[in-house]
Amino acid sequence: MSAIKVHDKLFVPFIAEETILNKVKELARKLNKDYEGKRPLFIAVLNGSFMFASDLFKEITVEPEICFIRLASYKGTQSTGHVITAVGLDVDIKDRHVVIIEDIVDTGKTLHTYLPQLLNQQPASLKIAVLLHKPEAQTHPVKVDYACMTISNKFVLGYGLDYDGLGRNIREIYQLSE
Ligand code: 5GP
After folding, report:
1. Does 20 reside within a domain?
2. Structural domains in the chain (count)
């Protein structure tokens, strides 16, 4: 693997495909154990999680369901501040065991803002599973229940994650070069 240029920036190899897939399988094993006898509902957050959600879902053996949402963020009024709404949540989550599938928790702002809306709908349980977690970048409290990998606070792309629209098709994860 060598460095690649995406738009105007240089990215260096960071996490190999084999490592990613092994970590995803490891996470699936944990979920299969923790959700034994249940029928979890996975809610995958597009766009960044599509590859992760797909590989993870293939390894789940406990009769899971999945749906996909997009989180749209816009500026509300001065009193409401930053608002996040979900597009595409067409499943009743009341009394369901919900697992959010996210690509990455960076500042935590997106999930911190959105989760109360899901909790309002009274799921039986609500857990967060992420491909990548950047604990050093986190400024908003979000409990990441499952993380495939913890990484430092640098921009990454590949395996579903983009830089300005490009790079999602890359099988490995690359990191922005210094
Ligand atoms: P938050 O800061 O709210 O936790 O992150 C929100 C979203 O920003 C993530 O779901 C992800 O789509 C995007 N994001 C955060 N860090 C990175 C990164 O290093 N690379 C890419 N490609 N997207 C990121």
Report:
1. no
2. 1
| pLDDT above 90 coverage of the chain, percent | 89
State whether residue 113 is helix, strand or coil: helix
Active site residue 162: no
Residues 150-164 have a mean pLDDT of 97
Boundaries of domain holding 134: 38-173
* 165 domain-assigned: yes
- pLDDT given for residue 76 in this prediction: 66
Q: What is the mean pLDDT of the chain?
A: 95
The enclosing domain of 73 has a CATH number of 3.40.50.2020
Structural domain includes residue 51: yes
Name the token pair of 38. Answer: 């249940």
Residue in 34, 92, 103, 106 annotated catalytic: 106
Please list every protein residue whose CB sits less than 6 Å from any atom of ligand 1. 48, 102-110, 155-157, 161-163
Burial of 27 (0-12, 13-18, 19+ CB in 10 A): buried
Is residue 91 one of the residues assigned to a domain? yes
Nearest residue (by CA) to ligand 1, atom 20, is 156
Global confidence as pTM: 0.95
| Residue positions counted in the chain | 178
Rg (CA), the chain: 16
Task: Quote the CA–CA distance of 90 and 38 in Å, as a whole number.
Answer: 20
Model confidence pLDDT, tens digit, residues 136-146: 999 999 999 99
